[in-house]
Amino acid sequence: MTNVERRLADNFWDLRDDAYDNPVRWRGVTAEVLFERMAEYVEAAEERGEPIDWQRDLTDRLACE
After folding, report:
1. This prediction's pTM
2. Domain boundaries, the chain
């Protein structure tokens, strides 16, 4: 399987698109919560030495909050 490295900006655009396409999922998500979760998941990915799967590591978990 080919591993295509995405630019960090692409991931932020994907998050923005998800928020636009699924506003109910993002209802109640504040900037504080968003940045806190981002910091936690970036730290966890760095510790694992794995790339971040933004959909799994951020979007899906914010929706559960």
Report:
1. 0.58
2. 30-65
